[in-house]
User: Fold these one by one.
Assistant:
Number 1:
Amino acid sequence: MASQEIENLASALARLPGLGPRSARRAVLWLVKHRETALKQVLHALGAVQDKLVECHTCGNVDTQNPCSICADPKRDAKSICVVEDVADLWALDRARLFTGKYHVLGGRLSALDGVRPEDLAIDSLLGRVEEGGVDEVVLAMNATLEGQTTAHYIAERLEKRPVRITQLAHGLPVGGELDYLDEGTLAQALRARRPLS
Ligand SMILES: [Zn+2]
């Protein structure tokens, strides 16, 4: 059996998404073996992120600068805002490198079951960004789940009287599918075939 320190590291890593206790132990073993190179590098990277991590006040993205690198990028088209549930969805969509506009992170989805109400999500700040003007299109990129689609319809209703085009990702996303788990090709396809919300 390993020492308490090593046990603690393994159980901390086991809580990461995608890592169970067994792969956490494997990761610890690997880090111990490569302590002079990889362990130092991981520690340094974690420290740098921890020192600088901030939430973007405009879009809700998590980055090491506020406004985030996407909001601050003048090459991004500010006329188009893609609304996502979580930061993971933003990162997944942005990896597909097809959408050139800006994003807005809601911080979840409406859920009667979990007691998530509109005021718990960053919906007012989205309306605020649209109200400021200069936005032509709002792309609703919610997950293809019942709650995701309920959220999309709620936002579409709130935006109804604003002079913006509202589109959503094309179906073809697997039902019940979470954006974060899709490959970039499927995501790119869904984004390309986005259509007006009916
Ligand atoms: Zn931002």
Number 2:
Amino acid sequence: MKKEKEKPKRGKQNETQQLLMLLGHAIQQVAGKSAVDLAGIIYGKRDLNEFIIAKKIRLTINQTRNILYKLLEAGMVSFTRKKDKDKAWYTYFWTLDPLKALGFSEQMLKKEGENFRKQAHLRKTRRFYICKNCGIEVNEETALINDFTCTECGNVYELNEDKKLIDEIQGKINQVEKNIAQVRAEMDKLKAQEVKEAGRLKEKKKPVKKKTSSKKKKVG
Ligand SMILES: [Zn+2]
């Protein structure tokens, strides 16, 4: 008998997928195209054996190390290493710094959003002309210089008020905003976890209650 409860939480799954995609984007920016799948492999894990990473990402160990070193330079990963038994070399174990990686992702998204906003502003405040014959669009200055005539076919330019395009750009801006919000929410979650863990560690460190006066003298 199958349990009905087995159904995966779709919304949550999509959210994770989306987050990994955003992270993959950031990692790709730092370490190149072949690194795009690394996010799904390394996110949320600790001390991942580099040979396992290489196998999962389907690259050679050297290619994998190249990617990881680039991420190391960007401060997005850290490593520990262990000397192999009876061998002279080390195996490296990698951990992604999720806050650094997400921070990088946030910066990238902000830049993206800024570009779209500029585009939208340009669209809204400046006129563009189009030759409907060739589908070539020019800005107002160029249209003026060309005497409002297409240089390709001699057709007269028409004002190109592409409401759809502005809507499209606005849609992209909205998506970027959503992505930023998601990245930030994840960062907040991680920070809260860190604070919690730090608190727990503190508790463990002082099993004996110290007798200290609660009031401290202020100096100065
Ligand atoms: Zn034309």
